[in-house]
Amino acid sequence: MDTGENEYRIARFRERLAHDDMAELGVRIEVRGTAVLLTGTVPTAGEREEIVRLAETELAGLPVRTDLMVACIDPPERPEELL
Known about the structure:
83 residues; Histidine-containing Protein, Chain: A; alpha+beta
């Protein structure tokens, strides 16, 4: 597959993330050598899985690496104890 087509597919994937409900997530897409790297923090494991699934579909045939962290946004179960 040629580089121009890969760049087009990556740009189309960026565009899709920017316009879907995931636009606020702040996922960064970078090209590192021959691989595509997804980085950032997402609020839930489900959203992480959805982004990875979309990447695998949109960028099929390209190596995709993910470094997406899941942020814990749940309130603490008990009050913090200060010593």
